[in-house]
Amino acid sequence: MYAAERQQRIIAQARRAGRVEVAALADVLGVAAETVRRDLTALERRGSLRRVHGGAIPVERLEIEPTLATRTGRLTEVKRRIAARALDELPSGGSIILDAGSTTQAVAELLPPDIDLTVLTNSLAAATVLSSHPGIRLYLLGGRLRGTTGAAVGDWATSALEGVVVDVALIGTNGLSVARGLTTPDQSEALVKRAMVGAARKCVVLTDSSKTGDDHLHRFAQLADVDVVITDTDIDDDVAAEIRSAGPEVVTA
């Protein structure tokens, strides 16, 4: 059984019973207790479960979406490594879309001051960082600003994206799975992300491995729409192989 499948079974059991125990899961799944503990740690990192003594309890992610500040404080070094690798995807003198999110924010912070680039973003935080870069031609997408994520959303943002074509879109995601593609809890953000994917010649998804195998309410792209997934080295080999089989190149950092 693949790790992603095992973890989905753990989540399903936790939601049915209200709690899961390490020893019982090890027996049911036919794996070592240490394997279950690693699964529970991975599920807790992505917010699906909360660890308690001897097991875990479910957390419904759709009810409480983490703020940008909360997400920025998680897996900081991992996100910086992913962001640093994403710099290799940038077209010299070209144009990019930079999505709103903690990992894409790390990209904004790592861009060299003298880089020659056109950047479109719906992230107020990223725009603030990039506004002082003399080599960047910055376009801030308008719309309603979501306080939770600092992202501009709505018709103003999606309408602007309908009229542009960029070289590369750097997109974040709350969930990624072969079965469901790329998903996020908020419908308004999903619509903007979908427009970003559609406006780019090349789509690069930046995500830490804890989000693989997770699905949220609103899908904004299939994996076939993605050219490259940049993630961290903790991703399971079998999960990476499944993603590659759906179309994208998988790069670890």
Automatic annotation (TrEMBL):
Species annotation: Humibacillus xanthopallidus
HTH deoR-type domain: residues covered: 3-58
Pfam families: DeoRC (PF00455), HTH_DeoR (PF08220)
Physiological role: Repressor of the lactose catabolism operon. Galactose-6-phosphate is the inducer.
Keyword Repressor among record annotations: yes
InterPro entries in the record: Carb_Metab_HTH_regulators, DeoR-like_C, DeoR_HTH, NagB/RpiA_transferase-like, WH_DNA-bd_sf
One Gene Ontology MF term: DNA-binding transcription factor activity
Alphabetized UniProt keyword annotations: Repressor, Transcription, Transcription regulation
Protein name: Lactose phosphotransferase system repressor
Stored Gene3D superfamilies: 3.40.50.1360
